[in-house]
Amino acid sequence: MKLRAAAAAVALTLLVGAAAASRGAAARANDGTVRITIHYSKFEPADLAVEPGETVRFVLVNTDPIDHEFILGDERVQLVHENGTEAHHAPRPGEVSVPAGETVVTTYTFPKISDSLIFGCHLPGHYDFGMRGVVSIG
Amino acid sequence: MRNPFARALTLTILTAIMLTGAAGSALACGGLVTPNGTINLLKTTTLAAYHEGIEHYVTSFEFAGEGSEVGSIIPLPGVPTDVIKGGDWTLQRLIIETQPQPEARAFQAVGDALASAGAEVLLEKKIDALDITVLKGGAVEVGNWAREHGYFLPPDAPEMLAFYADRSPIFLAARFNAERAANRGVQTGQGTPIHVVIPTPNPWVPLRILALGRKAAEVVQADVYLLTDRRPETLPQAERSKGFDPNQRGLIQEVSEPASTTLLADLRSDRGMKWLPENGMWLTYIRINETAANLKHDLAIDASGYGRPNPVAAGYPTASGAAPWPIVWTVMSALVAVAFLMVLTDPAVRRQAARVFRR
């Protein structure tokens, strides 16, 4: 029986490890902080889930040697920024520039309804390159 | 001296980059990123000639006009011993030798370079209106240098720089000085050839960089000429030509033949080309006509006659840099391990095994 228990433990460990690896590095801390790494012009992770009305503190770590930005909002917001001309703008909740090699923080309170929002970078060519992610609310 | 890595590198990247400020644009080996992020498709012509352990990389930068904010970057396989002004007709003469005339195509030239805080400047040189900088550094250092010197890198640049820096930390940056260009009367579209002298065990031509800043479906076009002592082998292997078919995609070998003495004589008479033997060279012309999505590798060349181009030089993954173990295999391995352990611990199975071994 001991051998069987050991085998089950090994299997469980491997499966849990595999599941964790498939989801990438854990991004979320218990204090409502979400850490997003920007690497090779991609957000990691690019899929998040939050509760309606939740306030999240985003810690954005840019490992690239080029500037990026983090714009959180619905499709209309994304469109406005995609067609905008501001290379940099003053930070607003959920909208912040992330200079090359730097870490910035922005805090955002999500609406109290089930929905989904998009976060993306709208520097020239970045959004089309695939620099975007989704936040599911609820 | 068949260092596998060094063999693989003789490269030249061109990264389309935007330059800020008053610098004029320099187009090299590839695309040009405009301030609105679109790409002007351009054709590049490059000569990678190799003789007595030295690669002579000749390409041309085209002035795109004052105020244009464009540039590019060239990764190199090793530290160049010199960067000089290229000959006036070498590239054109190769085109005439190998391509159907009379539509003499304008050739374009190679890129601009980047560097950054942490990147070491190995060489600085002015060639006509071009400012050339040879840098040593990793992808981040070179990217930072570029950004701090007014280059704008497209979103795929970080990964592209890493792709090259992982194999060789040497990059060449070039951009036009607008004031000198104006003083010299350099016109938009006018090319300035450069000639980079690089000791290396085997020549190499960076191709993937040509896709920098381009959308996946965009077609990259370039002409690559090789002049080698022996018939070279390349990786990826070039496809057989269908007779200059403009719809043929891929790396297409249009010419592979002994270089004619008249061609060599003409090339030798150009600036900086006296090193070229009078005969006995092999001419290869590879036409690049491939979508950016499929242009994933560089051109590794074995000019030694052994026919073994280096996969590392071509950018194929090494054993240590292999793709991560797929998650599905991890799960499958775990399940197999569980099943195996459970079977081993089953009393009935153990009794059966014992009977088998007693026999």
Topology:
The complex is a heterodimer of chains A (138) and B (359).
Chain A: H1 2-23, E1 33-39, E2 42-44, E3 47-50, E4 55-62, E5 68-73, H2 75-82, E6 95-98, E7 103-109, E8 115-120, H3 126-129, E9 132-137
Parallel strand pairs in A: 1-4, 3-9
Antiparallel strand pairs in A: 1-2, 4-7, 5-6, 5-8, 8-9
Chain B: H1 4-8, E1 18-19, E2 26-27, E3 32-33, E4 39-40, E5 43-51, E6 54-63, E7 72-76, E8 82-85, H2 90-98, E9 120-127, E10 130-136, H3 139-148, E11 151-152, H4 157-165, E12 170-176, H5 178-184, E13 191-199, E14 204-205, E15 219-228, E16 233-235, E17 239-240, E18 250-258, H6 261-268, E19 282-291, E20 299-302, H7 311-314, H8 327-345, H9 347-358
Parallel strand pairs in B: 5-15, 17-18
Antiparallel strand pairs in B: 1-11, 2-6, 3-4, 5-6, 6-13, 7-12, 8-13, 9-10, 10-12, 14-20, 15-19, 16-20, 18-19
Number of strands of chain B: 20
| CATH superfamily annotation of chain A | Cupredoxins -  blue copper proteins
- How would you describe the oligomerization state of the chains in this entry? heterodimer
Radius of gyration of chain B: 24 Å
Radius of gyration of chain A: 18 Å
SSE ordering of chain A: HEEEEEHEEEHE
Cα end-to-end separation of chain A: 43 Å
Report the sheet-strand fraction of chain A: 35-45%
Main sheet makeup of chain A: 5 strands, mixed
Low-confidence stretches of chain A: 16-26
CATH fold-level name of chain A? Immunoglobulin-like
Total DSSP helices of chain A: 3
The whole-number mean of residue pLDDT values of chain A reads 84
Query: What is the CATH class name of chain A?
Result: Mainly Beta
Query: Given the structure, what is the number of helices of chain B?
Result: 9
Instruction: Report the sheet-strand fraction of chain B.
Output: 25-35%
